[in-house]
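Hey L., structure's done. Input below.
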Amino acid sequence: MHRNFIAGEWVIGSNVANNVNPSDTRDMIGCYTRASAQQVEIAIAAAASVQPKWAAATPQRRFDVLDAIGSEILTRQGELGELLAREEGKTLREAVGEVVRAGQIFKFFAGEALRSNGDLVASTRPGIDVEISRDPIGVVALITPWNFPIAIPAWKIAPALAYGNAVIFKPADVVPASAWALSEIISRAGLPEGTFNLVMARGIDIGDALMSDPRVSAVSFTGSESTGRRVAAACVSRPGAMAKFQLEMGGKNPLVVLDDADLEVAVECALNGSFYSTGQRCTASSRLVVTTGIHDRFVEALIQRLGTLRVGDARNPSTLMGPVVDASQLRQDLDYIEIGSKEGATLAFGGRARDEVDGQPGYYLTPTLFTDTHNGMRINREEIFGPVAAVIRVADLDEAISVANDTEFGLSSGIVTTSLKSARHFRQMAQAGMVMVNAPTAGVDPHVPFGGRKASSYGPREQGRYAAEFFTTVKTAYVSA
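Output:
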């Protein structure tokens, strides 16, 4: 039985959740205890008590801790990648890649711990110096989703620790194994007891305890838009000091394909962005906005490639697309496929659930492509979060930009074109936090900022040096000689 890590000890929770392999529902990965609200309070108290000690740690000490975590993750990438593929359903290649990314993130922020800096400026008054520095924010609650069960925790935990904060980490209830494995590594890295805490539970059970406690100075959340809005409301409505909050939520990302695009590049970008990771990425290109001159050739070529996309056990090296994460997500995907058909879209490929593959029962869904759609359809307005993409035919670049921006979301946006002029214009006009040219809408480096606009994100960016904006607070000091 896998326990929670609270105040430096592994403790049993209030009840138990079974972790099931979505590629083979007969395979139970393990039992993971869920923390209670009372245990969350113990974790917060421990974190608040020890945080000043960790804040006072030297940059070298912080570097050593984070570097050790990153090194162990990278050393165990094969083992951790197989665990991730087994519990979440990513293909083994993608899962190992995610683990490597997590290790690289810890390595990057180990370096950031040494690169902390400030400014010394002259005052307008004689004899006075002004020093501008960054302090840790305090105790931070980190709430992560199920679709990247080790990378997203890494890009929240690593900067939080690098900048001297104490952490309460709540992973998604459906994928506890990767989070537990990461936490076990962190527990042995030399942090003062209570600096890092793992509380596995459902948000409905411990969310209030996490967000209402005034000792929690900040909340970083990645998940659905509806839950993100509730997090924001809880952070600003609690008595006393409000909590700083950072939200990464949904996406309905467009990939624009122009007449002059390299067809092979366009198809590969769409295949990767829309269907890799089973489409379960907030950066997935679920809207394929294609100009008339290339539309028919693009659709034909994409359907041909979809026919080669082998669906199966995530750990099988020949699998190109794994299962969806659980029964609830499969039901949601199928509901949207039915909605699209009823709205008048043409189901050009896929759209079928499979009870089993190679004799293994699992949550399998064939990659699904709709054509003859318009941007007013629900399948083009709402985030499906599965291997479902819709093609929207447009006349030219101007209409493509208009359609691409016609969404409440603004996370990632892409274009495939051989025209530098068109690419430059699209980069300027795209209402998104990230813009990709001749590359999939999904996939970002660990050392650059991640985040969007509109309903996709709120607050400072994650990752890279921009992470300091959330995990620190600026202090201005005046010194008179």
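The chain has a mean pLDDT of 96. The radius of gyration is 23 Å.

-- N.
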